[in-house]
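Dear Dr. H.,

I hope your travels went smoothly. While you were away I took the liberty of generating a structure for the chain from your last submission, since the lab meeting agenda had it listed for discussion. I wanted you to have the full record in hand beforehand rather than looking at slides cold. The sequence, exactly as received, is reproduced here:
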Amino acid sequence: MTPELWNRLTPFRDKAVAQGIPADDVERWLSLARPCLTLTRAEDGDGDGADDGSGDGDGPVVGRFGGPLLLPAGTPDPEHPFVASIDLAALPAGASDLPLPPDGRLLLFAFPETADDDETMGSVVYVPAGTDVTERDKHAWNSSDWDDDEAMFAEFPQGPLRATVQVSLPHHKSVVQPGMPWGGPLPGHPRCEELVAVWESTRADIAPEGPLQIGGYADEEAIDTDPVDHAVRLAVNAEDAGTADGAAPGDASGWVLLADWVAGMDVQGWESATVHWVIRRADLAARRFDRAFTSVHWNP
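The corresponding predicted structure, in token form, is as follows:
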């Protein structure tokens, strides 16, 4: 991370030490910090002056919520609603530690509802720069023409997205361990519960959240263990069941958070829903976005 991002964590460090957490524990926790990219909706560029309301970041426009669905001719219609497109060439330098392509567009799709243990609730499509594309029907995913689903999709956010490079620390304070169904402390971090509480109390001033995040650590409404670990277990179930295309199942260390979407900021009735797109780092580097998996946390 850049020195500027490290310096942003000073209020966290100061408060943690002031609360009596040993400096060595604080520094070990800070060693987990990752850069990430927070995307907030800019003022709508359609000329009506309407502000989309979930943030007014002053960074560059790097994509948009919604808009036309543009896909290469040979790409099948996605099975989930269109959420956002990201212009990878427009991302600020040092935006994350992910091996993202340097250009092209990343399209995110999701249905913000929980599902079976072997079912993905979204997908990711990478469109390389210079690829010929055609506009598709954004409603093709709803082959049964369910009115309730269309009403939900109609509330998906729309408008340009601005980027701010932020710093991210873990929101979770435990890991699943054999014989411990509720999880145990993160190995090597005996004060992790206190450190998470300090992060929760300082995050708004250090790294304000936005509706969409690229990289960093996953977050959701009620969090104990890492949402990425949960998503990985679902992904491995899907691979074992033959319902997902992927490499041989691996452990959570090979996976990263690609993106988080706090759907509950916008979609009425899904106020607590958060979408997590995860992928193996090796697949991300190889641009195998078809191997991404999408999980949803929703507590209706």
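Two observations you may find useful: The chain is about 20% helix and 25% strand. Confidence is low (pLDDT under 50) at residues 44-55.

With kind regards,
E. W.
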